[in-house]
Amino acid sequence: MIALPRALTLSRDDRPIVIAALFLVAILIAGTVYTWVRFGTAPLLSPTYLLLQLQIGAFLGIVAAGMMIVILISQIDLSTPWTLTAAAMMATAVGGPWAIPLSLAIGLAIGIVNGVGVAYLRVPSMIFTLGVNAVMRGLMVAHTGGYAPQTGATPLMRTLAAERSFGIPNALFVWLGVSLVIVLILQRTALGRYIYAIGNKEAAAYLAGVNTKFVTVVCFALCGLTAGIAGALLAGYSQKAYQGMGDAYLLPSIAAVVIGGTNILGGRGRYLGTLIGVILIVLLNSVLSIMDMPEAGRQVIYGSVIILMLLVYGRGERVTS
Amino acid sequence: MPGATEGEFLALSGISKRYGGVRALENVDFACGRGLIHAVLGENGAGKSTLIKVVAGVVPPDSGVIKLEGVAQRFSSPAAATAAGVVCVFQELSLIPDLSVADNISLSAPPKRFGLIDARAQRRRAEELLAEVGCEDVNPLLRVHDLPLSRRQMVEIAKAIGRRPKLLILDEATSALTSADVEKVYALLARLKAANVAILYISHRMHEVEALADRASVFRNGRHIETFDKGARTTAEIVQLMIGRDISTQYPSKPERPRPAAALRIENLCWDNRLQSISLDVGAGEIVGLGGLDGQGQKMLLLALFGVLRGVTGTTTVNGRAVRLASPRHSKSRDISIALIPEDRKTEGLMLPMSITDNLAIASLGNLLSGPFVDQGKERRAVDAGIARLSIRVGNKTDAVSTLSGGNQQKVVIAKWLMTQPRIILLNDPTRGIDVGTKQELYRLMRELADQGAAILFYSTDYDELIGCCDRVAIMYDGRIVRELAGVDLNETNIIASSLNIDTAAQAVASASATAHA
Amino acid sequence: MHSDLSIRLRQNFGFLTAVVLFSVVYLLYHVAHPKGFSSAVLVQNANEVFTLAMVSMAQTVPVLMGGLDLSVGALMTMVDCFASYLLVGAAGGTPLAIDLFGLHIALGTMPGGPSGIMLGIVICLAIGTLGGLLNGIVVVYGRIQPIIATLATGAIYIGIALFLRPQPGGKIDEDLNWALTNALGDFASTVHIFDDGAAPWFAPFAGVPTAFVLLALIALVVWVPFRRSVAGRTIYAIGSAEGAAFMSGLAVDRAKIIAFTLGGFLAGCGGVFLAIQTASGNADIPQAGAYTLNSIASVVIGGTSLLGGTGGAIGSIFGTLILRVISFFFRVFDIAPLLQPLFEGMILLAAVSIGALRMLRVRNTLESFR
User: Fold this and answer.
1) Which of A65, B202, C93, C193 has the largest count of CB atoms under 10 Å?
2) CATH no. for residue A210?
């Protein structure tokens, strides 16, 4: 047995990221082989195609960024679908220069409510955010009469979501901005340390003088904020808001975070992993649709890929004490 | 005698066990016979717990042979050991909190009817076993988490004898018991002894060992030093065997000083019927100890002083200013500057999977910022200083703190707090489970900190430590301070007497009424 | 000292609260309903409750272990789609075939008639059970956390459901539909027992909804024995203190697999009934998600703690009843359908926040961390 030099051995946090990246490449290769054999072309390797995938991925990516923060502190946010939708609907309803700030404010407000419920009332986040989701749905249904709102997205929303600058989709810049903020928080600020500490052992963080309740509220607020951003962008992309627009983002965002190596129980994970997880899911979806795979097959493959990747990451430890 | 192990019920030969770099057991030969109560003595870190874990099937030995009745055994799990007749009552309870007493007592092999658990038979069994340990008053329907700690321990013991052990191991089983329950356990052990059960008994209460044990073995630094029969050695000789050197050289000398002004003053502190009217002063430069039997409120007092408990009444004054401590964050703040070294370093003092650096810096991050960001340079310097000050042996600062030995882990906890420059330091049994060398370093450090002006409140379950380190010791019983000892009064006799204070009086009353009714 | 009764009352406080709450609300509902206290209303209510009750019972078991099953809705839907093929009940039998990758594979013929129906039901339940078993295997041998493992297996099940029924369709034997979605009298007359339902001693039972009887039967025959078995108790032990459970020699892995398998069986029961009730198979993804989330809500309202160790499936049934009765209420009081989701959401939020009141009394903050 040759002992690898330290630089070459992967830490427990890095391994999933490398494996996920390899899977990503594998999917690209599989898809390219398919298109080459079937059509004689390799569209998957064209920059146009890849940029388009990234643009679509931006929405999921922004939601996943917020979800990762909450998962890191051993919680979960199931209110993302209707937070996103509510932010989008109110933004389009109000229109004008206040549209985007309003969507952000709504996301932030809902996030704070979630945080207070979890941190101060100590209701398990699974069920509290579920309730908040139901309430937001109720509010939106009552408000819109059950139909999609008639008002459309503002020009700014459309520009940010659908247009390009310097040949790169603006949505990517937004995603990049969100990512930078998240990475800065997690790696360089005290808040980031507190987040990992709470996810590892909340009691120890508390006893070290960390204001765990406040940090929890901040984390949920950030998650709500990202949902609000994603809502505004999505409405811009589709030109309007519509019922159930956020439903498709909940489970994939959780999957992306976990595939990226973040432990679902909290306390460990790197943002780069979440990024790769998002791209992997988007790419997988796209490759499967190029293969003309019906929705049924896509679901089965999607579920199988998640299980396979988690198996490869290394199994969890058996609880013996 | 080491080596003469043939013919005994339990015979260990050449048992060794390492944990990372620590030799927990080193080539141990040991034997234990039926119908005898065999005490295992030694300091923390001497190897007693590891010995028990090996015999009870919790961990496999690295080398050596375990023989039961002459037959070599290899226990793959505690269940396997139980099946062979070796039952252990651990310090950490193995009870399921949300299940009832009856369920817990018959947890793994309950009486069945038509393939399902027979609740009535199970309850009857629980009642019988509870009666055997003298706890008939415990209703078997109660959930374990509703019971006080002492009762839980008794249920644990009832569960153990329900397995009809051939070898019963008790690992500090009496530490959580009320004195009434302790008597019941003594009676139970006497009955088991008469029934030819072999009993292994770990305790650091010398008076218990003297009263109960037929034989005693002393362990030190992972080695079996000596086994002797009851009465063959005096207490002083036993202690000498345990420590291997003269006691008085262990502790740094205490300065002769007039009593300083109180940095921390507590008046009439009460909480939830568990702390009653506590009044205490701790001066800057003083090391004040908290003593008494386990579970008399010492830990709760420290938590109260750190802001963890809600609903605390009474007055707490820090450096002359009355404060209402709302949270650890508040207690940590600059003008109050209290630090708490918590009871359980693995679940309260450290985030085990996180790096040594992260664990060291976590409490003082506020001081290591430049702008909104953590200043990596400042952090590095502060962490290095902390490691140097406590002489923590680390390989790589980015390694997880779980890779360190127990003693070094505790040093990380302490270093973390020293980085906040506290004026008042609370220590909750900091030397439990620490090796002797590190303990020495901690004693010196405490005295150093006191000399630099810190006020130290120090809870320990070890009388020697209290006597050796503290300027004064407050003995707690039932949530109150019953006595303060200082100077020549600070000796083991007084500590023990005060720890059992009320009981001695009660026993006197009980025996008086008994004779009256005779 | 504590008497047995007072202890039992205290321990089941959450559950009893749910029962009382449900009873009061349901009583009010019948009082307010124009056709209240009639068999027709009871039948309608029971039918609407059954499937969710089954899915909630399925969800209860993993929750008791401190985990979660995000695949219950999908599993139920998958069995629903299978049932739409297997419970057709045509007299000459139903031919079965798979179209996969352009190949047409004939699978034989599903027999018709009552024996065919029985066989079909058994196969459907077996499929549900297998799904649960797969969940258990992935969690135990894959050592993957239940929440994420079932998120993945749920996708697989919904995929299979979609494969079976890309569009809603299929058919259910009409007699089967009639028998199970009405009252016992109708059941008896369809199955030709008790004098086709006319026997005089049977009269008082004729109006009892069949779905209700089924629910009670499954709870009694499946859940109660499980609860009293060693495997069942091990589930509670795992949720309460997994380490201690293992140290005590309990077969933790085996119990986990049994737990998920049982959950699969119960979800399968729900799927079969849903197919029979709707007389079709529908791979409705949003509906599957809604069932999963509602099952979590039912479990919590019924008194089972998300941390594991306390609660039970009977409580979850009452949680379901409370959830459903609230929507019945809205219908009776003619609350604008647009406001119903809002009220449902607020009631759910209030219900789960009530448990928080207990937390406010905690005096040692350390105890509020897990």
Assistant:
1) A65
2) 1.10.3470
